[in-house]
Write a structure and sequence with these properties.
Oligomer: single chain
Number of domains: 1
Strand content: 15-25%
CATH superfamily: von Willebrand factor, type A domain
Radius of gyration: 16 Å
Helix content: 25-40%
Order of helices and strands: EHEEHEHEEEHEHH
Largest sheet: 6 strands, mixed
CATH architecture: 3-Layer(aba) Sandwich
Length: 212
């Protein structure tokens, strides 16, 4: 499970609190799923915060969720610009070896495929365009199924997300326009902990449980 956390300065206030709540709820829900035991968690978390640059939260670097304390997770919104490409590139670098490892895992059929959650309330305005890196992510496959990228444009307050770019980044029907802070919390917690592995399943969940 690979959520991308957005840390631009415009995400401060209620949006940062909503993102924090969503990640914490997602972790707690994922901790209850799968086989028992801290060492057999089928959910791992990679949390990437990005503004003009991107960085991996050191405690959430492909970390089994049962090793995490949700209350230590926080999104502050204390960055500057928006470099979506850098965030996706970090996700790609971590996912390539992870997917290779799953090929040989004795319980690989039980593992949900990685899911990338990306949310932004502004335009990509630093570095090269993100579409090519997003395509590489979605091209990573296991048993014929590809990694799903789900994006959300956060239009809360004065925010003006780049919906066109976010739609291009997302897998088919996996873009969500977020118009209230509680929708952002639900998007992260409910989609992130769903364990769903196909774009069609995730698109259905977004439509039935979050958008409506």
């Amino acid at each position: 499970m690979i959520p991308d956390g957005y840390n631009s300065g415009s995400m401060q206030g209620e949006k940062a609190r909503a993102a924090t709540d969503g990640v914490r709820e997602m972790i707690m829900e994922c901790q209850t799923k799968g086989p028992q035991g801290a060492e057999r968690s089928y959910f791992q978390l990679l949390l990437i915060k990005f503004s003009d640059e991107a960085q991996i939260d050191p405690q959430c670097d492909m970390t089994p969720v049962r090793h995490l304390d949700p209350q230590t997770i926080e999104t502050r919104g204390d960055g500057v610009q928006t470099n979506i490409t850098a965030a996706l590139q970090l996700a790609l670098e971590r996912l390539k070896p992870y997917m290779q490892g799953l090929q040989k895992h004795p319980e690989r059929a039980e593992h949900p495929l990685p899911l990338v959650l990306l949310f932004s309330d502004g335009e990509h305005n630093v570095g090269p365009a993100p579409q090519a890196v997003a395509a590489e992510l979605k091209g990573l496959r296991l048993d014929g199924e590809g990694v799903v990228v789900v994006s959300a444009g956060v239009a809360v307050g004065d925010s003006r997300p780049d919906e066109a770019t976010l739609r291009e980044i997302a897998s088919p029907e996996c873009y969500l326009p977020v118009t209230a802070a509680d929708m952002l919390t639900a998007f992260i917690s409910e989609v992130g902990s769903s364990g769903l592995s196909s774009a069609a399943e995730i698109a259905k969940k977004i439509k039935e449980e979050i958008r409506e």
